[in-house]
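Example record for the data management plan.
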Amino acid sequence: MTRQPDRILPGVILMLAFCMLAPLLDVASKLASATIPVAQIVTARFAVQAALMLPVVLAMGLTLRLPLRALGHICLRALFLIFSTFSFVAAISVMPVADALAIAFVEPFILLILGRLLFKDEVGPRRIAASAVGFLGALLVIQPSLVTFGAVALWPLGTAFFFAFYMLSTRAVSGYMHPVAMQFHTAWTGVVMCLPVMILSEGTGWADFDPVWPVGLAWLWLFGVGFWGAISHICMTYALKFAPSATLAPLHYLEIVAAVALGYWIFDDFPNALTWSGIAIIVASGLYIIHRERVTARQRIVTESAGPGPHADQTPEQAKSA
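Corresponding structural encoding:
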C-alpha cells in the first residue's frame, strides 16, 4: 500500500471536530441506556449509520462493492468498534460520561506505541511529554473511579484498548478506500455481526443483551447514537488519512472538554476547581502539539527548499527533535 503524503493541518482540524462531536454520541448512549440494553444500543449505532451512509455513498458515485483486499481490514475495524462501543456504553450506563472518558484516555499511549511499531511513525520526546501532560490533566478532570463504581470502572480500559486498534485498522485501509465508503462498509458489517447476537439473546433475560421495544424518546436517543457516530467518525477517518496517528493522538484529550461541558449542561455534573485545572492542562497540551507540528512543518519546508547544505547530514533523530 502506498501512503499519501501527510497533510498535518487538515488532519488536526478534523481530529478537533471529532473531539467536539464524539461526546454527543456518548450523551445519546447514556440517555438511551436508561431503558435500552447496551448491546441493542451498539446494534442501533451501526444500523442507523449504515442507513445514513448509503444515500451519501450513492450520491457521491462510490461503489457499493467491498474490495476483497479490504474485507479483512473492514471486518476487524467493525469488530474493534463493536467491542469499544460496548465497553464504553456499559460504563456510562452507570458512570458519568467524563469519569469513563478520563479512564479511557490511556488509549493514546497504546496508539503511540502501536503506531511506532506498525507504521514506523516518528514519535519524538516532545510529543511523548505532551501526551503524558495531557493524561495527567485528564486525571485531574475526573479521577479514576474504581473505589466509587467498582469493577464497572474497568470497562473504559477495554474501550481504550479496542479503540486504539480501531484507529490503526482505519489507517491501514484509508490508503486505498474512500472514507465515506469505509464508514458505510464498517456500518453494515457491524450490523451483520451484531444481529445474530441480538436474536440469540432475545428472551434470555440478560440485562445488557436481551432486546426491548423502544418507547418514546428512546427512539430519538438510538437515532442520535448512529447519527453522531457517523458524523464524528467520518471526521476521524479523514484525519487519519491526512496525518500520522502519533500526531493526532494527543489531540484526542480535547474530547474531554466537550464531555465535561455536555455533562454539566445535560446531567448537571458541575466541574470543580480541580476539574477546571485539568481542562486547562489538556487544552495547553493540545495547543502545544499543534504548535510543534507547525514549527516542524515549516522547518521541513525550509530544509527541502534549501536543498543539500549544512543540514543535509542530519540524522533522522536530529531532524525529529528539531
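Summary line stored alongside the record: The chain has a mean pLDDT of 82.
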